[in-house]
Amino acid sequence: MADAALDPHAAIATTASGVGSGTLTTADGMPLARALAHSQRRARRRAFLLVLPLLAFILITFVVPIGQMLARSFHNDGFSANMPQVSAWFASTEPGTAPDDAAWTALAQDLIASADARSIGVVGTRINYDMPGTRSLFTATGRQVRRGLEPPYQQALLEINEDWGDPRLWSVMRSASTPVTANFYLAAVDRTRDEAGNIQQVPEQQRIYLTLFWRTFWLSAVITGLTFILGFPIAHLLATLPMRKSNLLMILVLLPFWTSLLVRTTSWMVLLQQQGVVNDILVWLGVIGGGQRLQMIYNQTGTIIAMTHILLPFMILPLYSVMRTINPAYVRAARSLGATSWTAFRRVYFPQTLPGLGAGAMLVFILAVGYYITPALVGGSSGQLISNMIAQHMTGTLNWSMAAALAALLLGSVLILYWLYDRLVGVDNLKLG
Known about the structure:
By secondary structure, the chain is mostly helical. It has helices at 2-6, 16-21, 32-71, 84-92, 101-116, 120-130, 135-145, 153-160, 167-176, 183-188, 209-240, 243-254, 261-272, 277-285, 300-323, 329-336, 341-369, 373-378, 386-395, 400-424; strands at 12-13, 25-26, 191-193, 199-201. A hairpin with a 5-residue loop joins strand 3 and strand 4. Helix 5 packs across helix 7 (135-145), helix 11 packs parallel to helix 15 and helix 16 (329-336) packs antiparallel against helix 17. It is flat and about 95 Å long.
């Protein structure tokens, strides 16, 4: 009887009192509505327990690390945690206040304590992020103050290095005196703060990030368009051929997935270089002269060609899966009613492929935005994307906060584009087959 109470399809009995009140009950007298609710709760609990291991795995290995990384974009306590006295002085004064004796005393005592704790390198690295070239100032001063530093501290520090009197340095230290900062986001859009704390553009020769963002989205859009132009006829051919032949040709489409990305990229390096196969064929055919070999690698051309080839299957497969379901009788009916082949394609066939086209375009564009191995190998200086700069900060300069800020802006840009696509087209119209 207990099992019957948990089963929404259990036998329903109407008690003597229930007949008068019109309340339906299960065989053991439990109200039917309560039995159904209990059964649904139990089903939801079982479903949650089934997906709990996967949910925990995603949270631990994906969500939490990304969250911690993105937190570095606005939180960096390298200076504030190791220079508490001068940070307290900055907190008690207004921006633009010139350093007084209390400020110099706090700075000197913090430098001595930080040098003794061997954290002066961390302090210098944090300031160096906002003012390049200052890490050596901190480390060299740290070695000096460990031998002893006598007041007046202002004169003693200026004797060690006159750069300690630079108003720009004090402005940067004030900005770094709080662990939460927006300076990395400012740097990510080629902005900085002057001595008074006002936001301004960096010098023209240092403006690289906005250019890289623009290049990333532009090249990603070009690559998406090229994969559509090349992939649409292929997908249409696969969808209209008999199943046996289309399955055979599908192997050629899937073959890149079975080949290492590094192998595919280096193959293009062999093909596209000035002494490579493509240039040799063009010279042999007489299209170009021996001294007119084309530069098709280590530039944007190489990036576009290699990434288009690598990402082409991601456009073909969604298109093919949708085209396979389109009834060819629709086009035949349109032509029998007087439409030309082009009109039938444009007004009948192509609109039905838009769900697959949208899915393929989203896949290719998002993947292209985040690619960095292929541009690093074949792109040269003009074919680098913002992802290459993120990788450079992660592994080269070790400025993880800057890498996190660039990654956060890139993620935000992709989410905005995704939102615009949803508003204009509708994510519900996406189909992967």
